[in-house]
Design goal:
Number of helices: 9
Largest sheet: 7 strands, mixed
CATH architecture of the largest domain: 3-Layer(aba) Sandwich
CATH topology of the largest domain: Rossmann fold
Number of strands: 15
Strand content: 25-35%
Distance between the termini: 20 Å
Mean pLDDT: 95
Radius of gyration: 21 Å
Number of domains: 2
CATH superfamily of the largest domain: NAD(P)-binding Rossmann-like Domain
Low-confidence stretches: none
Structural class: alpha/beta
Helix content: 10-25%
CATH class of the largest domain: Alpha Beta
Length: 340
């Protein structure tokens, strides 16, 4: 029988950030590890996810998901190996996806674990291209934005975990043109040379986003997938054609603002153009899970859909990985790896 560890470590939120989070808002805390009770499993986490939505959970405000509690372990997507099981559905050695990240060992109800296969895909992909970000891209583009072949699509934050998949999925389903924005020359090169975007621009350039978008899409756009908000959303409203659709997935440009962010100044265009702007939460689209995995895994196996991961090693660097993701330091999915 495998000898179990006696202690583990977990990140706690110890104070609520004001503006940009800083390392002092977090603490790495030791906790006891014991045999799992009936109906539970003990998992050694291998890969942890850090995602933009986690910033909102650090604020004590009413939202679609509860705020992190102070001085308690934080949560998030994780993939790991079962090292002890008190539930007949899981055996030692199984790999599972669950939501008790930000720690090295997780004791959880077996009901809340999903078995995944390292033979079908690398385990880290279940946190990215085959996980929550991938399904967000798939549902947000095809169901929420009602994408159809021939649409011209603009994606903000296009080199991130969600945006990079949206652009490629649109091309694979017959988009007439796909434009992306990102924050560095290297990311622009990746979008156009590796991911097949027709055009991309650096939003950090001196030229306004609206001007760069008009130049990249002179005939306008039919679909906008918004991961950034702010200036990007205003620019997209200006460039959307009549009956255009926008999926509002995130607004990372304003997540750390300490004052309310002004809305787009051109919202009257929404009326004249008969635009449709709709928010997306991945939890609303669980019914697409099987279809998503089947189609996207096929694209990955054929090489038609590519993905990138930025990997940070070590639980002790989990906070730095999260802060780096907020700063745009990642290309594709940001993953914290705890070793094989």
């Amino acid at each position: 029988m495998t000898t179990l560890p006696t202690t583990g470590r977990a990140w706690h939120l110890v104070r609520r950030p004001h503006g940009w989070p800083v390392p002092e808002d977090f603490a790495l805390v030791e906790f006891p590890v014991t045999e799992p009770a009936e109906g539970r499993i003990l998992v050694r986490n291998l890969h942890l996810s850090v995602d933009p939505y986690m910033r909102g959970r650090m604020n004590d405000v009413k939202s679609y998901i509860p705020a992190f509690e102070l001085d308690k372990p934080m949560t998030g997507g994780a993939v790991g190996e079962v090292i002890a099981s008190n539930d007949e559905r899981f055996a030692v050695g199984d790999h599972v996806l669950h939501d008790l990240g930000w720690r090295d060992y997780a004791d959880l109800k077996a009901d809340y674990a999903t078995r995944v296969s390292a033979e079908l895909a690398p385990l880290s992909t279940y946190l990215g291209v085959l996980g929550m970000p991938g399904l967000t891209a798939y549902a947000g583009l095809f169901e929420v934005a009602s994408f159809k072949p021939g649409d011209a699509v603009f994606v903000s934050g296009a080199a991130g975990a969600v945006g990079s998949q949206v652009g490629q999925m649109a091309k694979l389903r017959g988009a007439s043109r796909v434009i992306g924005s990102a924050g560095s020359a290297d990311k622009i090169k990746l979008l156009t040379e590796e991911y097949g975007f027709d055009a991309a621009f650096d939003y950090k350039d001196e030229a306004p986003v609206a001007q760069q978008l008009r130049e990249a899409a002179p005939q306008g756009i039919d679909v906008y997938f918004d991961n950034v908000g702010g200036e990007h959303l205003e620019a997209a409203i200006s460039s959307l054609n009549v009956h255009g659709r926008a999926t509002l997935c995130g607004a990372i440009s304003g997540y750390n603002d300490t004052e309310p962010t002004p809305g787009p100044r051109n919202m009257m265009m929404i009326i004249g153009k008969r635009l449709r702007l709709t928010g997306v939460l991945v939890a609303d689209h669980a019914d697409l899970q099987q279809q998503f995995v089947e189609e996207v895994s096929g694209w990955i196996r054929s090489g038609e859909l590519k993905y990138s991961e930025t990997v940070v090693e070590g639980l002790e660097n989990n906070v730095e990985a999260f802060l780096g993701m907020l700063r745009g330091a990642n290309t594709g999915k940001m993953i914290v790896s705890l070793g094989a």
